[in-house]
Each structure stands twice: as structure tokens, then as C-alpha cells.
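EI: anyone free to look at a 361-residue chain?
SC: sure, send it
EI:
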Amino acid sequence: MASVLVVNAGSSSLKLSLLDESSEEPILTRELDALQAKIDEKELSAALACGLSAADYIGHRVVHGGEHFRDAVRITPEVRAALGALVDLAPLHQPKSLAALDAVSRVLPDTPAVACFDTAFHATLPAAASTYALPAQWRERWGLRRYGFHGLSHAYIARRVPELLGRDAHSLRIVSCHLGSGASLCAIAGGRSRDTTMGFTPLEGLVMATRSGSVDPGLLLWLLERTGLSEPEMAAALEHESGLTGLAGTGDMRNVLARRSAGDSRAELALEVYLHRLRAGIAAMAAAIGGLDVLAFTGGVGEHAAEIREATVDGLAFLVTPEVEVLCVPAREDLEIARQTRAVLGALPTSAPDDARVQTA
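SC: here you go
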């Protein structure tokens, strides 16, 4: 029974989880500080020595696989070099993934390791969904296309929802709503990604905790030309000062909901904008796959903010009919990473346990 050490490098921490095939829950977890992609290898070694190093395999979450990595892949020196060449595509996220990969590889050099990509699930996007209407020379020279993100979460939904409903994945049209600090939608048909809201970067699409989501590019050009804002200032504002934070002064959905209940007009507007964009995105995803059989909510907001789920469904009554299943499925990127790792290294994955928590909206 192959056990997998799942390594997930976040914005300021490194999460380590040991999973085997007998249970949905990790055998052991540790979370270490990892500010600015800096990992204390002594602290990492101590954490791994407490049982995590017993893993048969290692599965790393890597944010960007570019156009080349369309599936999980065993990490070799050649693969590591290729991943380093993709840093320009995800300068905020890829260095953190690679710092974790390198640190764990130095501590556990003999354990086979696999890179699992947040972009890979969206490699099946049709050209109509992945292509930007930009000059051909731009697209060809710089690889400009919709890559999509949160692919590990959406891939788990694509696999888990058919299991929960006892239905064939090929017969289901699913819109997966990953709503957390970052947020994206995915249109899934036949178990594959057919459209998604994030694009060349994770900035495109829905309103998020601190990210703007889609903004008229002409507006950004206007600001650059007329206000004296620098490109770094604009990048920081779009990534860290926009979204719910820009609208309500906080990116925490719990606080936004509480302030709205207390009569805060900024919070009220923030929720209206958030829900407007979310409903429009869900309708667009359903259109991309010719209808809707399942609407699945996941991620921190998707799982825990029943008010958001209810308001979303209420505003989509024309689309979310009694024939449509509405599910709340816990986000389990760790299980998806472990499954992909075993598949790459030859250990067959098993189905998820029957007692996974599922709620209706």
C-alpha cells in the first residue's frame, strides 16, 4: 500500500501531509513557515523525521506546467530545469513550489517524486476556450493562451462527483466552483475541463479576496498612461488590494457577511458585485458544455458560506432547476495529488471512501 508525502507550498507556509490508500484523512500533517519561498531545511528535516519521511513517494503541487506539462510527471533533473524555465509565467507562485521541491529533494533524495500541476487539468480546453483574440505573432512568440488554474481541485471534483452520485463521469455536465481566497470556475464534461475562468494568470475571472478578477484592459492602460502609476504598483494593487478587499476593506468573506448584516453599505456592494460575477460565470460555464447536471461548490468560501451558495443558486433559478444536483464537496487537492503520484509511479489509485462529507446548498 503506497503512501505519499504531499508537499503543498502556499503563500507563506509549507504544508506536508502523509496519505495512504486506506483512509481519506492524512496519517500525519505538518505546516512550516516558508516566507518569500525561504525554507529552513533544519526545520524541514525535523518535521520529516517525525514519520513523514516514511513515505514511499512524494507528490509536489506545482502551480504552472506551461504548454509542455499536460499531466503529472516524475521529477528528474531535466524536468526540474524545465520547471525553472516557467518561472516567468507564474513569478509569484512558481518559485515557492520549486523552493519546496528542492528542499524536500535534498532531505529525501532517494524517494521518487512527482510534480502535479494546477494547470494540467485544463490542457483539454478546446482552442475556442484557450485562445485569446490577440495578434498571432504575440500568441506564437510568447505562448499567450488561457492556461487556467486550481486544476487539482477541479480534477478532484471531476472524479469525486460521479462517485458520490453513482453515475458515469462521461454522462455528467459539471460546473465546479472553487471559491476561496482565490476563486475560479470550471466547466467539466466527460470528466474533462472544457472551459475555465482563470486565464494566462490567476488574475482573470471572478472577484476574489484580494485579486480584482477580470478588468477592462483599456482601463488599466488608461491608468498607466495618465496617472503615473508604475507597473509594479499596478501589479501589487491588482493582486493584493483589489477584489473584496478593494470593495469592502476586507478579503475575509466571513467579515464581509457580518458587516453586510450590520448594515455596512460597502460590504453590501462587495457581495452584490461578487455574486453578480459568480452567477454570470456559472451561466457562461454551463453554456460552454451545453447545459448543467451538477453545480459543485468547493474551497473555503464554497464549503463554509452557505449564504453564498444559497444566493448563487437563487439567482440562477432559470438554470439550476430541480433536475440539477447542487453539492458541497470538501476541497481535497491532497487526495488528487496522491492519486496522480501513484498513477505516475505505477501504483493504482483506489476510489475515495464512501463516507466523504457532502452537503446540498
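EI: The mean pLDDT is 93.
SC: 👍
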